[in-house]
Each structure stands twice: as structure tokens, then as C-alpha cells.
Amino acid sequence: MRIARVASPDRGAWDGRWTLAALALLLAWDASGLDLPLARLAGGSGFFPWREHWLLARVLHADARDVAWLVGAWLLAGVWWPTGVLKRLSRGARVEWAVSAFLGVLLVNLLKYASPTSCPWDLAEFGGSARYVSHWAWTVADGGPGHCFPAGHATAGFAFLGGFFVLREGSPRHAVACLAVALSVGLVLGVAQQLRGAHFMSHTLWSAWACWVAAWGLHVLVKRSRRTGAGILPSHDIP
């Protein structure tokens, strides 16, 4: 008796569906207009009282940024000298993870550089000089310093989402853990910045999506290059 083979799920298709679903939710959030009401919960009377709190300003901002740099250095060094979970990955996969982290940070910072949107603490109602303008109004100056959208600090977590794609082939459990940690850390850091008045919630959510797209796009490109023999990254043979 022949046993029919069950086709494995098309991960690429599912990745695309999740990406589009997340985009739809983000657009719905923007349409809801909840950014400013949430900012008002954290700030009032012309200022944000939590702006200089030691936990938010020191631990979840300066210290978290330093830790992210250390993780990035670990990924880079791991291309040649893998430790921990990196030992489960081929050299090509290790390069992909490191490159995806760099691409995520680069993409978010390029968007920030081009954006005229100012931070909540720059708004007049919170003690600044700017007026609230949607971050989609790229040609409209709000009277403030701008360059606040999307959230750069949250990439200290979101930038490492690429680990999900490279780990799930051989270690799904570690892949899910990486996804959960990267999303959780990025969200916590984003909320901390929102409490300080540094960002709106949409800034954090769009940073997450941008980092995801950077990692997913690179993964798709790498897979296609291997099928065609182009080999844009080192082989996935260990090491």
C-alpha cells in the first residue's frame, strides 16, 4: 500500500500572509487615532513626569542600548567563533542573522532621517513647540525638530528578529524563543520610551514591522539565491 506524502507547509507563503496581516493591523491602528490619547495618559500639564525616571531613562534606555550593541557584537563575532545557540547554525545562517540585524537598524534609521514627524515631548501641549501631525504627512512640517518616526530605540529588540528565520530550519523551539524575546524586548523598550514622551505607540509598532520585513526580505533573497546558485551569502554547510 502506498502512503501518500503530506506536503510540508509553504513557510514562505505563511510568512507573507503574517506580514500582510500585521500591516493591516498597523494601518488600522493608525486609522484609530489612538496615538495622541495614549500619549496624554503618560504626559500632562506640559511635561512627561516619567521622562527622567532612572528605570526608563537609564536601565531601559541607555543600558538596554549597550546590551543590544553587545548582542550585535556577539552575532558578528559568532560568524567565525560561534557560541551558544549560534553553534546550531551554519556559517551562512550566522551571517544572515548578523546582516538582518544591521539591515533592520539601517532601515529604521533611514526612515527616521527622512521623517518630519516630531516626538510627543516636542508637542506644544507637552511643553514643546510642535503641533501634532500624522507621520504619514511626509511633506507637512509640524514646527518641531522631526526625525522621530519610527522608534529607533525599540530596534534594540526588534533588530534580532532575523534569528527566527535562520533557527527554525533546525531548531524550531529556539526560533520561537528568539521571536518571543525579540518582540517582547522591543515592545517593552518602546513602551518605556512612550512613557518618557519620546515616541508614540505607532512608532514602536512600525519599527517592529520594518525590522521583520528587513529580516524576512533578506531570508527570501538568500533562499532564492541558493536555488539559482547565485550564493549571495556563504554556504549553509556547518561551518
Word description of this protein:
There is one protein chain. The chain has helices spanning 11-32, 35-42, 54-78, 91-114, 155-158, 162-167, 172-196, 201-228. With 239 residues, the chain is an all-alpha fold. Mean pLDDT is 91; it is low at 1-8. The chain is built from eight helices and no strands. 59% of the residues lie in helices and 0% in strands. The protein has a domain at 54-115 and 150-226. The N and C termini lie far apart (41 Å). The protein is globular and about 55 Å long.
Annotate the secondary structure layout.
Layout: H1 11-32, H2 35-42, H3 54-78, H4 91-114, H5 155-158, H6 162-167, H7 172-196, H8 201-228
Helix pairs in contact: 1-8, 3-4, 3-7, 4-8, 7-8
Give a concise summary.
The chain is mainly alpha-helical and 239 residues long. It has eight helices and no strands.
The averaged pLDDT comes out at: 91
Overall 3D geometry?
globular
SSE series: HHHHHHHH
Structural class: mainly alpha
Low-confidence stretches: 1-8
What fraction of the residues are assigned to beta strands by DSSP? under 5%
C-alpha Rg (nearest Å): 20 Å
With helices defined by DSSP (H or I, 4 residues minimum), what is the helix count? 8
Q: Termini, distance in Å?
A: 41 Å
Q: Tell me the helix content.
A: 55-70%
Q: What's the total count of β strands?
A: 0
The description of the largest β-sheet is: none
